[in-house]
## 1
Amino acid sequence: MKVSYNWLQNYFEEKLPEPEKIFEGIIFHSFEVEDVEKVGDDTIFDIKTLPDRNHDCLSHFGIAKEVSAIFDLKIKDKKIKTFEPKSTELKIEIEDSKCLRYMGRVVRNIKVGESPDWLKEKLHAIGQKSINNIVDAANFVMFDLGQPIHCFDLDKLASSNLIVRNGKDGEKITTLDKKEVNLDDSILVIADEKNPLAIAGIKGGTKAEVDSNTKNIVIEVANFNPTTTRKTAKKIGILTDAVKRYENEITPELCSIVMDSITDLIYILAGGEVEDIIDIYPNKPEQKIVTVSVSYINKRLGSNFSKEEIESVWKKLSFEYINKEENFEIKIPFLRIDLNESYDLVEEVIRILGYDRLEEKLPEIKLDRKVNEAYYKMLWIRNKLLTDGYSEVMNYAFRDKGEVEVLASASNKKFLRNNLTDGLKESVKLNLLNISLLGIKDVKIFEIGTVFFKDNEEMHVAYGDKKGIVELTVEEYFSINCPIEQSKDFSIEKFISFVSHEDNYKIKEFKPWSLYPFITRDIAVWVPENTEPNTLFEIYKELGTELLIKDPELVDKFQKQDKISYAYRLVFQSYDRTLTDEEVTNIMSKITDKVTSLGFEVR
Amino acid sequence: MKEENQKGTEHPLSVIINDTIKVFTELGFEVAIGPELEDVYHNFDALNVPKDHPARDMQDTFYIKGENEKVLRTHTSSVQIRYMEEFAKSGKKPPFAIIAPGKVFRNESTDAFHEMQFYQIEGLFVGENISMANLKGVLSYFYKKMLGEDINLRFRPSFFPFTEPSIEFDLKYKGRWIEMGGAGMVHPNVLEKCGIDSNKYQGFAFGPGLERLMVIKYLMPDIRPAYHGDLRFNQI
């Protein structure tokens, strides 16, 4: 989510560290920061909050809490309630347990209009459009505190009764973005006595939309079941900032401070008369107390933190706690849905103190070395085939036909391979085309890999050349080819020898190859038998230019009386273009000229 | 490359996998394997990934047509579960340590450094006092073997449902920090689901991708040719 540096600053009396420091602090103590952008005098961080912290960190307040803990800066107290509420006629009824809390409040005689510049700027900074002061206020408070808010036009309601109920078959709602959604009894809605007004936690409807003529509003600050909200949003294909927050579960406790905050802001921006809150809250979550000990924390971390250091973490995180000898009883803040057990607190300690505080320690336990027999067989086969001159390839598991089909693949190859042979045949073909580049006489290859059948998968080995491919299961190949006296010897020493060679761990540089076609030319030359054998090779290498992609390859040699014929194959290829015949002919004629000038005879 | 009857050439990923196995086998880790077409229980449920939770969206999963309970495994963490279930059933007691190299699948669009199939190496070490500092020690030891002594390792906070705490780790190699993979302390729920007493035993797990290591070690510009069956790839 986008987080504004200036917005964060509003939470602190003290001047925040520079944006670069905040960026670093968040990365090493909280979350990934995907992007940092300067916008005017502000800096915007794009923060990838972790899935277990979307509960409380999809908001500026959430990030401010992190900054407070990381840099040990105190969040200042917020003063609100500049209004005096009056009594209300609003009634709210919850018919389904998917709604965990519903707070409503009427504000009368407001003035809908343009938002002030500070509000527009704040929203603009995080990529939000300004609509009007009421909608903007609701948006602002959501991005500030992480709780979605909705406002209805009270005068468009059938009466001052709101009902939270399931949709009915055949019922429809038109959402604010003008999408018609068919309702059913799995979809929770907010309704008046006649019509559905909003899809709970997902999107408001046009029926009770706040517009420029709106005078009286109902503010909704509510909490809905994360799973059902997520399922409904997926089903109807509407993903909103509200859904993103509800589906990650927010504490219903948040509603109270949010209602205060939004009422205050609307009162300041649009005036009006504020009425009492109606709060339907069937099941208030219990206060969680988690006990954790200094020794437990140090045991899991392999660290040696003192009691005082650990205590400093609770202080930085503003956790209330009681200390009894080496135990801490932590009163978990309602916002921290992710903290439930003592092990959850271990992470809080180490991330706040810093992972750089962990030493690198190899375990001191000596383990019995054991051999995995199936893997042993695979390695044995691999070694045998390599020794027999077969080269190893790996092909895709996905093919255009097979017995097992994957759903919704991004690729057109939707099936899992049921044999290695088909892929290997293609590899043989591909490598035969490149044989002059590879400098080998014959293409002999193998692959060891999983193949998939309707009801099972098997580890196969396939090997062969242009004459044919043999495919067996790893078990079959091993029992046929491994000599009896070796086939029972699954020793760890043997196992390690299969993965060992003189080049273990060596760092080498890979050479990418050209994607352009190559051109091959053969040249046979008679030279006197006393000629230095390398003479022709050196000439070709020199005059072949950088387009000669590999060393000249001697393909034929024979002697007649006092003359020897050397036939070389030259392969030309460019890294940046398709070579023309002419270019290569030019090079070859220079070579021919040189050879002739030395008195040799080109055949 | 001219002698007759020469040895075949090796695929660079195999070289990386074998080097990895060598390091860990010598430390006492046992190689473990498991199915690539996995059931939802071993790929998600047993790993503490709740149903209908956004955490399942973290990985783009390949589901199988006509099979509600099967997926192409999205990580080798499923091998941890299979190994620990067997281990606990056989009545043995920790410590144990495994290393599981294997192919995993993600339904993502591909580019020079991402494929729909790739290799992960899963490590798991459980005992009475196996700690996060041990994780750091083992990873550092491994990467020093693979890339030379001149590397640095650092941890950053992360989240995986099956580890607590969870971290992402980076390596400083040739002057640059490179994100390598995820790791953490095995979540006690995961141990319990497999029948291992989480009050008595604890341990770490890690699962970096191997292509990333191959690419930085051999300075490869693109991983896609790895699965083209092209022998020009076998240079290492």
## 2
Amino acid sequence: MTEPALQTGPAPIEDLQPPSSMPLPLDGWHRAQGARMVPFAGYAMPIHYPEGIIAEHEWTRHHAGLFDVSHMGQLTVSGSGAAEALEALLPADLHALKAGRMRYSLLLDDEGGILDDLIVTRGGDEDGALFALVVNGATKDDDIAHLRSRLPKGIELIHREDQALLALQGPAAAGVLEQVFPGIGAEIGFMQATSRRLGQVDVGIGRSGYTGEDGFELSVPAAHAEMLAEQLAAHPEVKPIGLGARDSLRLEAGLPLYGHDLGLDTDPVSAGLAFAISKKRREAGGFPGAARIARLLEEGAPERLVGLALEGRMAAREGSSVMMGDTIVGRVTSGGFSPTLGHPIAMAYVEAAHAEQGTQLAAQVRGKLLPARVVPLPFVPHRYHRKGGV
Amino acid sequence: MARYFTQEHEWIDVEGDTATIGITDYAQAQLGDLVFIEVPEAGSTLAKGKEAAVVESVKAASDVYSPVSGTVTEGNAALVEDPSVVNSDAEGAGWFYKLTIADPAEIEGLMDESAYKEFVAGLD
């Protein structure tokens, strides 16, 4: 999924001091772990714990990281005709989505611009038309307003502010969760969901995440979030991980970040997210911006989101121009140092003519031209646990 | 030798007309793991309050401003090789650059250590 701004671009050090923001259910728990809290999407959130971003990043790649993503919006959309109603707003084939299956999708405006990206899960009851949506924290209020204005009468939209959301990510995640929820690893594969009880508490579990690793997202009543976090963090393979490593992990995994790599001025085709528009929906249309998106699919997008690998250690960050010789051919939308690869990486929108893999470009940073080569995304291979050809 | 501090979280050691400048331990803790540092080259002229160096952590790039005007005599090349020195020893081996002070009057008005500690305590 996606996030709003971590600070990017040069800024005076004194700007790093946190203003006040709303606490999330695990606020006290994070502080007890020694987290450095920063304002993020209107909430106080842990950017890192005492070991620091690089150690947390590497821990998640080799063991299991516990993330608090309770700032994200958890919504349910239900009622007779909920699938049709949602299909009018996003390009996923929800009729074909089976109970307990998850899809990455996009809320689109009428021109095909991206209002938000999200994960939609069909509720566990085959007959019941219930969809659970997880949307970005920074955009959730706008998303809710958009949905309320567009969904027909009789469709119920609920913002589950009573739920916290935890993510357990990394190669050890499945083994750890198995000890809390026996059989979970065999029950669900990547992009599948179920629910379990932990004592008297219902926990929604989806096998998904934002790191490129195998992992799970756990929706739990806010009042019980600390109990679940404690139970998971008690395992020696688990450490709490902050937003800083979440951003560097998602960047390595080539996963776009809303408000940076995605926005109203981008579209699913340019962003490399055409996979989120099912074949059936491409043919039938009927979602916002369908005509424009069909044209982009047919003719190719004029610019494309690509990966850039940089040399040296100086990173190109959001806003840097991408140059071919003296000509600006693109712009960086996310960038930073890759702990796994040991060099800076970036995602950038680049004119299609210069977007081929291997093209040698340069990123302009503080008056310098840093050599940047177009490379495939993800930068670091995904290690999802797919089951039964999902 | 006397050590002064700025509200922008730089420290400055003054000995005669020579100053050694770095960022404070508080600043490195705020920035987190540093992955890139650019220090000014010997011979370059810096103006008080203007950009002198760049530090990049995993999460952000930040400017370091020169607390005094002067001519750089040495940049700490070791930081370019290994920026983590600033995380481990910001107020020692992690110094950024040395310069010849152009105007000693600029030192006045900087904080001493206890004033800086008080300033930082007021931030949390």
